[in-house]
Amino acid sequence: MNTDRPMTRWERFKDNDILWSFLHSPGAMVAAAITLFAILACAFAPLLAPFDPFDPAQISLWDGKLPPAWVEGGQSQYLLGTDNQGRDMLSTILYGGRLSIIVGLAAVCLGMVLGVSLGVISGYVGGVTDAVIMRIADVQLTIPGILLAILINGIGRAFLPLELREEFAIYVVIIAIGLTDWPQFARVARGATLVETNKEYVQAARIIGLPGWLIMLRHILPNTLRPVLVIATIGLALAIIAEATLSFLGQGIPPTTPSLGTLIRVGNEYLFSGLWWITFFPAIALVVLVFAVNLLGDWMRDALNPKLR
Amino acid sequence: MTELLQIKGLDVEFPTRRGTVRAARGVNLVVRPGEVLGLVGESGAGKSTIGNAIIDLLESPGRVSAGSILFQGEELRGQDDTQMRRIRGDRIGMIFQDPQTSLNPLMTVGAQLVETIEKTTDLSGGQADARAIELLEQVGITEAKARLKAYPHQFSGGMRQRVVIALALAGDPDLIIADEPTTALDVSIQAQILDLIKRLCRERDLGVIIVTHDIGVIANIADRVAVMYRGEVVETGEVAQILGAPEHEYTRSLIAAVPRADVKLERFSSVDYIEGGTKPFQRIDVQTHWLGQARKERGGGRAIEVDRLNLSFVLQGAVLKRNRKMLQAVNNVSFTVAEGETFGLVGESGSGKSTVARLIAGLYRPDAGQIRVVGQDVTTNPRSAEAKEARRALQMIFQDPYSSLNARMRVLDIVAEPIRFYKLTDSEAETRRIVGDLLDHVGLGSAAALRYPHEFSGGQRQRISIARALASRPRILICDEPTSALDVSVQATILNLLKDLQKELGLTMLFISHDLPVVRQMCDRIAVMRHGQICEVSETEALFSAPSHDYSRHLLDLMPRMDLLRGTQS
Amino acid sequence: MFFFILKRLAQSVLVMAIVSAVSFSLFNFVGDPVNNMVGQDATREQRVEIRQQLGLDDPILTQYTRFLGNMLQGDFGLSYRIKRPVDELILERLPATLELVFVSAIIALAVGITLGIYTGIRRKSWTSRAILSVSLVGVSLPTFIIGIALIYIFAVNLRWLPSSGRSGTLDFGWWKTSLLTIDGWRAIILPAITLSLFQLTLILRLVRAEMLEVMQTDFIKFARARGLSERAINFRHALRNTLVPVITIIGLNIGGLIAFSVITETVFQWPGTGLMFIQAVDFVDVPIMAAYLVFVALLFVIINLIVDILYFVVDPRIRLGD
Asked: A238 vs A269, which has greater pLDDT?
């Protein structure tokens, strides 16, 4: 690529191998489309949803437990039926999905910021700092994430007075999942940092006399982002599952403002009496969402791995 | 005489998203029994592709698109995998570059040999074991019987390459293809392995194709040589004829670029056929330029003084100090480099020469000893303002052009980083102008500023590194094997550039290399290092004509014989 | 070898020390232990008496040492809710969890490794692609949804298998097994599949990725150049070199099974330690939470130790030193 004129940003973007791989991978495009659709649908839930599930005026217990519109006994205004309290399933799923995505994103961001900062510092500074940070990460990794999330979440709830528990449940869940996530990010970021620190451009920066924080920020951090991005995508899928699991176990988001996991938990109680739709639709929504994110992460891992290219 | 292998009109293609790359075009080659054919060329010339095409192991998605490969009268092209499997190992053996990765780490050497013997011959059980021992002895491994039970990691690099050769010989093949068989090895081991290959060729009447970038290897081992350039064989003939009186323009450039060990030349003769080499660039008048302003400070003093420097690395940690395995990487090293001088540090890998460079550059802290840069002690209190200021006078150029530039930064930002950090200019506009001038001066052209490193070749990247080093307006340049990752023709242009810069800017240079001919061309004085110690320090010409230390003499003896080249170079 | 294991043992002790410190602080910082023992309406004198009985006024280090001593004897005190010794409760429920994890691990390893090797070798085949696509769905299915789906299909609609609980147990002293009766197997089959599915897909994908990685190495290329058969290359060279990472995966996998047994046991009302833990979290029953934490960490440390020893067996570079 040695034309005489340097490429513009747009040309460089079009020339990008990753974009090219994306445009030649139908799975990745479908996944991106689903993810984008899900994020948009949930972001604009208040506009899209036919009902507001949090508005008592719109809920009538008489309309409770109605099956989907196409099943006998269903009503056309409730496309996917209603739950035990008479809330429209489609609307609750849109609002619930929104909550699931927000919690997932926030938890991953928390884990990522914490993990990447600690990982880069650990890898660059080395010595005792490195040993302490990584030992903590190791010990934490000894205990499976979901257990730890349940534990942190349980402790967090125990600290809150009863009347605040519901209100702050979402933050407790975010912190619980985020705190469970960080060692993964720290390990990956540290590994990448060790590789980059040994590269000669970092040594060149040190010889120029740049201070450590500037080298970490300007030189190392941008070069560790690729693997971190892959972990973050897969981590998002796992965080959404973790939130759903906590909520399903009754430890997460309360039924007053339900997330997808809460909806499934509530619906599960009615499964034996044949009210399958209260569980089925939120479950499908959750699985499709997680699948799309996973598909994206899977493609990204292959596309960003220079060895497989 | 019948030909062992005859390649006619061979084309190899690699379809990629940016169009088809033709890695080999119309290649004709002949190999006869009992001779070594050298296939020489620079990176990207397509020489390895030919070897892989012969045994049908091209990396995906490469394929042979035209031509024929006749082996003992049999067409290899178009044979399916089952048929090829009977030829691989049985009739054609292969040796790869890196002995560290060529062997399965989890299987004993014996198991790998026996497995190959059983596949390629009728022998089995005890007979196969006996044959394995015999093979190891033939490639010069002593106590072969005991070593059968050893794992690859228990062998040294050179020994591992001998095992690889034994494996290639297991099926008693008629042709051996050796792809850069000595590139990953130290000089002293290189010679032994080449001797072994040559001996086996003669004794067994083998045909050997040796693929290499190194003219020295060709001069030492090959009977005939084929020169490749951009997928084509540009010239074939007897070694003496090709190296002594090359006809093709490219061959002539290539040979002219090989550093001479026998005499010091002012510059490398100008070489065509080099990437970017023909591009005209403006050189600035250093005397009046920003770049030359720091020169005023310079006097005739001492640039670097190193006094009884010591550094050990921990090889294997342990709680108790006496249980730790230490490596004395630098052992009581002392020398002085005068301002304006080019001082060479020479040694094999592991001699500690690069560690000394990194100690001086401040990347490592010494266990003991003192370093003075332009008269300022930088070891006692390395964080003091004076030490930092002194260190600014010193910049470094690294070996690997690929990892020495941050891939996420534009060339402008890479080169401007020290200027901006130390606020060496008054305005951003001036910074950009100076970066442009620097890039012009190192022969890249100022337009390079807006590109990213991956758009440049290895030699061009090394020029960017040089521009970045100059941007701090250094008085001392440490060059750590600056050209050992480059092709020989590119090496010549970079070395010329360094020589010019040194003269113009009055730089002091510490030049680290394992390559004696290069050092001879570059340096005024040379220190020979071994096992972390300095064996001798001499004027360059004195060292080459009358080395005082045994080890220096040994190193000089190992230099490839280049007598064949003399005709063309003088 | 000896020093290697000694070093690992030291690390394990460190892990356990930290985990025990965490579980000790659970006692001190989560909820008021006195309230938990006597209830809200106890008199002041009663409270002081209990505090002294429990030694809550001693220096923190003394308390921790006492906690450690008790812990080493398996004594975690009484459950706040059920008022029975915690170690008794755990031991009672341990067989159920271990049997569930054991059956799941067998399923996950056998199927996961087999399919992983198959998709790793037959990279381009149609079946491999299908298996891979399905496996990605598997990674995306939360355990509890798999459980609900299986219950709905096999228990509610088809009525083939029970939907919850453990049955057909035979008593062997302190160990109650359900693996010796048909009823027992009928009860364990759904939870075991539920628990294994996620790990199975993980193992499959990781084994395949490792196979592909090894296939790129020089020694495989050199083996090809010697004309060795595909069979020898795949099994003798490639598969053996995937063993080290695969052992790591298996170690993590068994850990994952223990963790997710919490969820599976909840879905299927399986009377194991996981279900007990989740109920304990609900009621902030600290002694059970703390004991479970220590118990899980101990299991993990043991698994990791076994994995390290297996490395030794498999990889001569570790065994013989570099």
From this structure: A238
What does the pLDDT look like over A53-86, one tens digit per residue? 777 666 666 666 767 767 776 677 767 777 777 7
Which of 223-242 (A) contact C at CB < 8 A? 237, 241
3-state secondary structure at position B393: coil
Walk across the sheet containing B63-71 and list its strands: B19-31, B5-16, B63-71, B74-75
The minimum CA-CA distance between B384 and chain A, rounded to whole Å, is 12
* Average pLDDT estimate for C253-259: 82
Neighbours of A110 (CB within 10 A): 18
- Rounded CA separation B293/B419 (Å): 14
Q: Would you say A185 and A116 are in contact if contact means Cβ atoms under 8 Å apart?
A: yes
Tell me how far apart the alpha carbons of residues A187 and A192 are, in angstroms, rounded to a whole number.
Answer: 9
At residue A238's C-alpha, the angle toward residues A234 and A241, to 5°, is: 145
At B569 the pLDDT is 42
In the structure, what pLDDT confidence band is assigned to residue B567 with cuts at 50, 70 and 90?
A: very low
pLDDT in tens, B514-523: 888 899 989 9
Tokens of B548: 């005082």
- Nearest by Cα to B505 from B472, B539, B464, B482: B472
Please calculate the CA angle B467-A125-B359 and round it to the nearest 5 degrees. 50
- Residues with Cβ < 8 Å from C217, sequence gap 6 or more? B101, C241
Per-residue tokens: B185: 């090895």
Strands B394-397 and B476-480, bridge-based pairing: parallel
Pairs from A302-309 (Cβ < 8 Å, separation ≥ 24): A302/A21, A303/A17, A303/A18, A303/A21, A303/A22, A303/A25, A303/A28, A304/A18, A304/A226, A304/A227, A304/A229, A304/A230, A307/C213, A307/C216, A308/C212, A309/A17, A309/A21
Tokens representing C306 are: 């076994």
Best of B106, B151, B156, B174 to disrupt the C interface by mutation (most C CBs within 10 Å)? Answer: B106
Cross-chain Cβ contact B395/A20 below 8 Å: no
Give partners of C (≥3 CB pairs < 8 A).
A, B
Torsion sign (Cα): A270, A272, A276, A282? positive
Which of C55-69, C198-212, C285-299 has the lowest average pLDDT?
C55-69
Which residues pair with residue B11 across a beta bridge?
B66
Cα gap C4→B229, rounded to integer Å:
53
Distance (Å, whole) CA B52 – CA B56: 6
Top-confidence residue, C123 or B33: B33
Task: Choose the closest CB to B106 out of C218, C224, C240.
Answer: C240
Q: Note the Cα A179 to chain centre separation in Å.
A: 14
Helix (H) / strand (E) element for A237: namely: helix A221-248
Count of Cβ atoms closer than 10 Å to residue B294 Cβ: 17
Q: Kindly state whether B417 is in contact with chain A, defined as any CB-CB distance less than 8 angstroms.
A: yes
What three-state secondary structure class fits B5?
strand
C interface toward B at CB cutoff 8 Å? 217-219, 221-229, 232, 236-237, 240-241, 243, 314-317, 320, 322
DSSP assignment, residue A82?
Answer: B
In angstroms, what separates the C-alpha of C257 from chain A's closest C-alpha? 9
* Cβ-nearest to B421 among A7, A210, A222: A210
C31: pLDDT confidence band, cut at 50, 70 and 90?
Answer: low
Helix pair C143-150, C182-215: axis angle to 10 deg: 140
Residues pairing with B295 in the sheet: none
Report the C-alpha gap between B448 and B442 in whole angstroms.
Answer: 11
Beta bridge partner(s), residue B530: B533
Residue B460 CA from chain centroid, whole number:
17
